[in-house]
Amino acid sequence: MAACSVEELLAKAEAQEAETLKSISVQKELDLEFDIGNLLACDKNRIEPRDLREKSKEDFLRALARDNTQLLVNEIWKQPTERVEEAIVAKLPEPSTRLPREKLPPKPRPPTKWEQFAKLKGIKKKKKTNLVWDETAKEWKRRWGYKRAGDDTKEWLIEVPESADPNEDQFAKRVKAKKERVAKNELNRLKNIARSQKVKIPAVTLTPKASQSKDELARAESVAKTSTASLGRFQDRLPKENPAKKGKKRKFEPLIGNFSNEKQKQLELLKVMDTKKPKLDITKAVNKQMRQEDREEAAAKHKKAAGKKGRKGGSMGGKARGKGGKGKAAGGGGGKRRGKPGKR
User: Fold this and answer.
1) Residue 65 maps to a domain
2) How far apart are CA 134 and CA 147, in angstroms?
3) PANTHER family in the record, alphabetically (predicted)?
4) What is the per-residue pLDDT for 333?
5) What is the pLDDT of residues 71-99, one digit of tens each?
6) Looking at the domain assignment, is residue 217 inside a domain?
7) CA 303 to CA 297: how far, in whole Å?
8) Are the beta carbons of 76 and 36 closer than 8 angstroms?
9) Exposure string over 299-338, b if 16+ CB within 10 A, otherwise e
10) What tens digit of pLDDT does each residue of 194-216 get?
């Protein structure tokens, strides 16, 4: 093994360190174009062919990517910075390059009914802490949810109101009321999602509200009766109940049967698909022609009747004008007769 001097070892170590820890300053003939908002850097410098011949393609591309990334990082740290939870972050400006998208950007979520009401009344949301002090347990508990503070369903003693039935289970009543509130909140949440997605909600079941209309009750009753295995055939009817509407039953061809009919249907279908001219429905064409002729005949009759009515009105007007002429002449004669006594 050949002996190595200390100077050679130090030079070799410095070369390795310089190769692993490269300088942050990179020299380029043309400056890169940066879009810091999109973390984008465009390099317009020319690639020399001899650089590709001297190094392998992978080493050349790796070195080029490293230099351009270093320039992009240098440009990022020129932006204003701030400290967020023991970390220094840079404030990026608005992007200037418009990037293509496959789909449209997501639309903002429409406000819920409560948000619309709060905006109308000027109600501002106040942030509350998640933990509150529970006087009964003498400890901090969650404000909402599981093991929350002041949970009335966990009380071991409940006072029975004077107006309530003394034999009624107040614990079961509270649990039932809580389940109804949870179900109502879940229904409202699903309605908000459906309204934001513009999905029509089928009004089949009864929604929790103060009063139900007659149509809603009838629809719910019909759905409940026809949901049985016999489709409501053996269900008792009310005195004035209308029979439930039944849809048409679909008919299917038998799986095992006459294959010649199936073959004939398939051949007819292929023949229709193969023909370039559309198939002419003679019955439909004749009916269409007959309806067109009936409309033309009705329009002609209407036009003829309107013409007769106009001519009749014109003749009556002529007679009235004639009578008026005679009256005028008689009036003129009367004027002459009135003039005769004056001469006398």
Assistant:
1) yes
2) 11
3) RIBOSOME BIOGENESIS REGULATORY PROTEIN, RIBOSOME BIOGENESIS REGULATORY PROTEIN HOMOLOG
4) 44
5) 999 999 889 989 888 888 899 999 888 88
6) yes
7) 10
8) yes
9) eeeeeeeeeeeeeeeeeeeeeeeeeeeeeeeeeeeeeeee
10) 888 877 776 556 666 667 788 87
Enclosing H/E stretch for 41: strand 40-42
pLDDT-based confidence at residue 337 (cuts at 50, 70, 90): very low
Q: At 321, list the tokens.
A: 């004008």
Q: What distance in Å separates the CA atoms of residue 144 and residue 226, rounded to the nearest whole number?
A: 41
Residue 219 lies in a domain: yes
Q: Residue holding tokens 């009105």?
A: 313
Pick the last residue of a domain from 30, 62, 90. 90
Half-sphere exposure of 342 (CA within 13 A, CB side): 5
Per DSSP, the chain holds a count of helices (H) and strands (E) of 8, 6
Cross-strand bridge partners of residue 82? 89
Bridge partners, 34 (sequence order): 41
Q: Which domain holds residue 55?
A: 6-90
Per-residue HEC secondary structure of 127-159 comes to CCCCEEEECCCCEEEECCCCCECCCHHHCCCCC
CA distance 151 to 74: 57
Q: How many domains does the chain have?
A: 2
The angle formed by the CA atoms of residues 157, 163 and 166, to the nearest 5 degrees, is: 50
Domain boundary pick from 71, 90, 109: 90
Instruction: Tell me if 171 sits within 8 A of 158, measured CB to CB.
Output: yes
Q: Which residues neighbour 118 within 8 Å (Cβ) at sequence distance 6 or greater?
A: 124, 125
Residue 15 lies in a domain: yes
